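[09:14] KT: can someone run the structure on this one? pasting the chain below
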Amino acid sequence: MRRLRRPRIDTGEVSDRWQPRLYLRLIVLGLLVAWAIGFILENRTQVHVHFVLGTARVSLVWVILLVLGVGLIGGILLAQLERRRRRRSNQAPEH
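[09:31] RB: done, structure tokens below
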């Protein structure tokens, strides 16, 4: 009777398959998704937003995301304006 042996594992191949960066990214992605779900669930209450000509009733999470978006766009535009001012002042001919 012949005994069956397990095939030998090439340890070089196993170490090539272990990708710690990939697993770290997957863990971080999973944590971010869990945080986003918790953020949405905690901020789903309805709030009144008063404008000059009217009032709207929206979920708090949408107000937070809208303010975040406006802030990001405003920051990018201000940075571009400052960059343009610096470039113009450096190009000005000296007397």
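[09:33] KT: thanks! The beta strands are 46-50, 55-59.
[09:34] RB: yep, looked fine to me
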